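Dissemination and training. As part of the outreach component of the grant, students in the summer workshop were shown how a complex can be specified as a set of sequence lines and then modelled as a single object. The example used during the hands-on session is reproduced here so that future cohorts can follow it. Participants entered these lines:
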Amino acid sequence: MTSGTITDGPALRDPHTPDSRIGHGADYLHAEHTLRSWFFTTDHKRIALLYLASITAFFVIGAVTAGLVRLALVVPDGQVFTNDTYNKLFTIHGVVMVWFFLIPSIPATFGNFLIPLMIGARDLAFPKLNLASWYVFMTGALFTLASVVLGGVDTGWTFYTPLSTAFSNTWVVPALIGVTIVGFSSILTGLNFVVTIHTMRAPGMTWFRLPIFVWTHYATSLIFLLATPVITVALVLLIAERAFHIGVFDPAYGGDPVLFQHLFWFYSHPAVYIMVLPGMGVISEIVPAFAQKKLFGYKFVAYAAIGLASVTFFVWGHHMFVNGQSDFASVAFSVLSFAVAVPSAVKVYNWTATIHKGSLKLDTPMLYAMGYIGLFVLGGLTGLYLATLAINQHVHATYFVVAHFHYIMVGGTVLAFLGGLHFWWPKITGRMYIEAWGRISAFLIFIGFNVTFFPQFILGYLGMPRRYHVYPPEFQFLNILSSAGSTILAVGYIFPMVYLVYSIWFGKRAPANPWDARGFEWTVASPPPAHNFVTEPVAPKVPYDYPIQAKETGRQHS
Amino acid sequence: MSAGATDAAVAGEGRDAVGVKLVSHFATVEQQKHAAVLGMWAWLLTELLLFAGLFLTALVLRIIHPEAVQAAARHLKFWIGATNTVVLIGSSLTMSGAIQLSRLGWPRGMVRFMLATAALGTLFLLLKGYEYYADYQEHMMPFLSDRPYELKDSPPSRLFVNLYYVATSLHGLHLMTGITILLVMTWQASRPGFLSLHQNRIEIFGLYWHFIDLIWILAFPTLYVLNR
Ligand code: HEM
Ligand SMILES: [Cu+2]
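and obtained this result:
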């Protein structure tokens, strides 16, 4: 396989000397140029970029509808949109953000790009399947998008029965078909990762030398494999009921509406960890690199990933405390939900301990990582409130819940995603972005986020329900504050889109290892050669083999 | 490495070489085979969960509403279900035969066994179709408003019968997919040289076929037999 295309892409060499030949030879971006070579590629790195482009587009759609929802909530009398339009808007927002952005985001982009590089493999185990899963994803997502835009759906992203089966007069069936299809893409991605991590590790790359990023993706892939089929069945049953009257949920047909909630949350609660675990993986790479210290308690962090992935299957009932579920079940689910906090806290403590006495360098990725830790802690703690039976009675289906899940999902996933994007951007594109701009964006997002969502905790506590756009006038001030915050947040999101794209053409060329980071991916050129490695890489004895100071370069980390 | 590297090339009377072609991103044929087998197992695991949701619901329903469910289950055509169980187990046997012959490098016998497997699969579908037709005659389809359901005053029995239709048609869909793949593969395998390059495809497909069988073996007692 050492044929013409890769002979001039040096793979293993001193990580600190910039490669003068970058961009001239056979790195994966320049190996081929045709449109065909992108849309029919089986290179995991190019497929990652296909995903990156698609989910960015979906994020923009989700963000615009979020903006419109916030616009509507500026006035208390609901005059901005009709009820119907408002319902459709928050449904588009939820559907797009959850199914087409958050769930695929980190695994499909960074997971695809990095897992083979990190374990020293030439590609994923099934490259064609990998490409196929992008096509499956796009087919399903565009199908749903067309139906929520052309016809509209007003059920919210949760498609609860009996609203979705019997009462909603909107395009529920096409939207469901699309979401079901997208599920298959998750399954295929998870399957590919599991097999790759099991069978394709380079010699010497034992399980306990794997980067935590790989561990968290392994755990995530297990959730993809174990949970997604259950939502598939739930959605298929929903389609069957709505389209063919094969009733399973509607009592009029003998069905049970709560059954849908069980099936739905059996998937959707673990899905939260599909969103959060990969983010934890990203943070676990960034923190040691910018503290120049070994990750504290490596094994615990790895076990915690598997622990989270397991416990998360047993807490779905905390979404059903007020729907008539038995008291015994509620108490059990409440206790189990508290148990999720343990592995989560393990991770947070380990990151903090890693930062402690490290030689900290506050570059953009690290700023995002610190923001992540803050928001995740607040989101997690409010989760404990929600898991407490008595408090749940009070705040169920209020803005308190909206604030909580945004802290977890946006704080947890989006900040990690952006942190990872800045961290690996030089590797992916071979270019550096302008550091000052990166720092500004991280600050804007952190501030904008808190101004947007913190008031929602108070609103929810005071009793403002979610999914209503008419509310008592005394809530207006906090709503205006939240909407104002969302404009800051929007600016924070637009910034990186501008300066990152700018850097592709005008940025400085990136060295192989701009951060003095450890891991196989930093030993290959930026951008990596088409086939990743020319000679087989050899794993270090310990993962995260950081010195307090980078001796090779003498670079100071203050 | 040379393209088309094979392992364990056997040559002999009436036999073809048996092996697997190494794809370039794998280091060894062993690694490639391992990945393929693991990939199929992972897929089967998710498939199992797909059906598990349905079966579990049916079981819980049986526990909560035993009489209503039994009344509905008595209408299911036990003998067709039982015959179909035998048919599918038979098809698993012929598939095992095909796999065994593929390992020995006897393509002609293998192809015959594969055709027999496809035939048994088709027989299953025909019987199942006939069963649906009989259900239709007996007013056992709650979702047809022009043929009022026999047990229409008993919601749990309707729910159970609805689950039965979803589960069995989902199984039928898997079987149809399986037969299609099997026929395409039989066509490919009937050309010379197939076994020397892709023997493991037969093995991997065999796993999938046995799985379809297994799902039916779970479905039959859950739907037809339990406390009958
Ligand atoms: C990655 C970013 C985001 C994600 C993943 C996300 C996700 C969600 C989800 C799942 C819902 C629930 C919809 C429903 O209840 O059916 C929701 C609701 C909402 N989101 Fe977001 N969101 C994001 C960003 C934003 C931003 C930036 C804003 C505001 C500027 C925002 C404002 C809202 C509001 C106000 C609701 C409540 C809708 C309602 O229940 O009436 N979201 N979001
Ligand atoms: Cu939950």
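Confidence is low (pLDDT under 50) at residues 1-11 of chain B. Students were then asked to discuss how this feature might be tested experimentally.
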